[in-house]
């Protein structure tokens, strides 16, 4: 029954998006009109920021402060950014050989299917919906089953902003039913997915087996965060802590392998442990709380399993190592030292507040070890030496390298993965290519202007 219901909802949503694309008015509006709607929407979100931040905390368990101060402004900024792109998308005239007039049209692809995860419900919505609408597509977006709330709220605000019916359809539902229906639908022209590498493979296959819709994937990671011997240890400790523990450790790009040069290792370890012990865990609505609960029982148990695996493989448990209290999915901020590359906690995505600290001796060694992973989403480098930073920046096989900073997510900065961390880039100018296709138009012409 549930399966049938979900499939029906997905199918109705796709029909609505198809009709809105084929019959308009959305793709036929002027780009300026589309841009105005995106701006009006962003302004409405800004007006409802407090309400939305509170709803996002209910939705996900992240701290209200983080939702209000970081994620809502990021959301609004991203829609302003893509509203700015809407009327700057155009093709080229091409000087072909012979008496031909050749132009390219940059057209929207059609109906975009978008599947998002639960760790940043609003931010993921923005990264997907912003560029797709700026390019004139229509959308069916499926939220994660854990976090349906804020997408529904902002969809209502889109309606208020004047977005025509059928252009944006938000479906709440489960992955193997609603998500899979979207990935394999013959009337969906493009698929964008963020989530685990395993599910990324599933949706890529569903797309291939149905209508070969192009797929962009933003998947898992095991990002190295490299602290060189010249680093200011206090700053490095704070940044490495942030890189891992931010958002309860539930970040695809979390700096989850902290490589520390042997000369600063002992001091770094001592201070990292102290910092983790000071981390304030509790009610995410309470001021000063840095860490809320994990998203659900499944993720909570997964994190605890990895902690047990770290202990069993003889990494040194410096602090934490268990749940916090007996109620709710709170996990103690956990630090392991003496972590070796072949341990599971150094290879798999834990997606929780578990820091793994590894020791290294020289730059060539750390490059080799940092790259020895199936993932390639992001990397962090902490050094005062520009030459060391440049060497590492070139050698690391990752879609983003943050130098002396981490988790900087400006709307204009492209984001995406090398290797099994994904296909394609989101944000910035790069995301526009995901939602456009190029049509070459050729006609004979006498005496072309450029000959
Ligand atoms: P998931 O990749 O299974 O779920 C993400 C989205 O995909 C959700 O909307 C889900 O409903 C949908 N989905 C699931 N199965 C599907 C299917 N067969 N067809 C179409 N859509 C489907 O991730 P999950 O199970 O929530 O978490 C598992 C692990 O994935 C986490 O522990 C973490 O390691 C990783 N993850 C990575 C994220 C990232 O930002 N790259 C976000 C969430 C999870
Ligand atoms: Mg899953």
From TrEMBL:
BP terms from Gene Ontology: carboxylic acid metabolic process
Keyword terms, alphabetized: NAD, Oxidoreductase
GO cellular component: mitochondrial matrix
Gene3D superfamilies in the record: Aldehyde Dehydrogenase, Chain A, domain 1 (3.40.605.10), Aldehyde Dehydrogenase, Chain A, domain 2 (3.40.309.10)
UniProt EC number: 1.2.1.3
Family per record: Belongs to the aldehyde dehydrogenase family.
Protein name: aldehyde dehydrogenase (NAD(+))
Species annotation: Glycine max
């Amino acid at each position: 029954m549930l399966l049938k219901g979900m499939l029906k909802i997905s199918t109705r949503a796709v029909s609505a998006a198809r009709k809105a694309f084929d019959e308009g008015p959305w793709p036929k509006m002027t780009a300026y009109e589309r841009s105005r709607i995106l701006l009006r929407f962003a302004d409405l979100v800004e007006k409802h920021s407090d309400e939305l931040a509170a709803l996002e905390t209910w939705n996900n368990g992240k701290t209200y402060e983080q939702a209000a101060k970081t994620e809502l402004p990021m959301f609004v900024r991203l829609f302003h950014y893509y509203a700015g792109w809407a009327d700057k998308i155009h093709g080229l005239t091409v000087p072909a050989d012979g008496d031909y007039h050749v132009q390219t049209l940059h057209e929207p692809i059609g109906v975009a299917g978008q599947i998002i995860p639960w760790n940043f419900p609003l931010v993921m919505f923005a990264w997907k919906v912003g560029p797709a609408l700026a390019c004139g597509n229509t959308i069916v977006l499926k939220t994660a089953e854990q976090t349906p709330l804020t997408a529904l709220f902002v969809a209502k605000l889109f309606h208020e902003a004047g977005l025509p019916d059928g252009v944006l359809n938000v479906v709440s539902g489960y992955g193997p039913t609603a998500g899979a229906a979207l990935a394999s639908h013959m009337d969906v022209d493009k698929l964008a997915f963020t989530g685990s590498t395993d599910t990324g493979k599933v949706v890529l296959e569903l797309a291939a087996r149905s209508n070969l819709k192009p797929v962009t994937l933003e998947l898992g990671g095991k990002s190295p965060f490299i602290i060189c011997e010249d680093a200011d240890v206090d700053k490095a400790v704070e940044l490495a802590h942030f890189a891992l523990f931010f958002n309860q450790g539930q970040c695809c790009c979390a700096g989850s392998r902290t490589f520390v040069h042997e000369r600063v290792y002992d001091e770094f370890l001592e201070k990292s442990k102290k910092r983790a012990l000071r981390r304030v865990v509790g009610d995410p609505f309470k001021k000063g709380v840095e860490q809320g609960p994990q998203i659900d029982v499944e993720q909570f148990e997964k994190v605890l399993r990895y902690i047990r695996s770290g202990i069993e493989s003889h990494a040194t448990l410096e602090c934490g190592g268990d749940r916090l209290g007996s109620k709710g999915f709170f996990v103690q901020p956990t630090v392991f030292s003496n972590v070796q590359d072949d341990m599971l906690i150094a290879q798999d995505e834990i997606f929780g507040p578990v820091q793994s600290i590894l020791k290294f001796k020289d730059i060539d060694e750390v490059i080799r070890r940092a790259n020895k992973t199936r993932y390639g989403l992001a990397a962090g480098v902490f050094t005062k030496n520009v030459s060391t930073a440049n060497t590492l920046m070139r050698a690391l096989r990752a879609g983003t390298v943050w130098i002396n900073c981490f988790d900087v997510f400006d709307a204009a900065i492209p984001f995406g993965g090398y290797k099994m961390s994904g296909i394609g880039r989101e944000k910035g100018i790069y995301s526009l290519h995901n939602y456009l296709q190029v049509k070459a138009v050729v006609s004979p012409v006498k005496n072309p202007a450029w000959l």
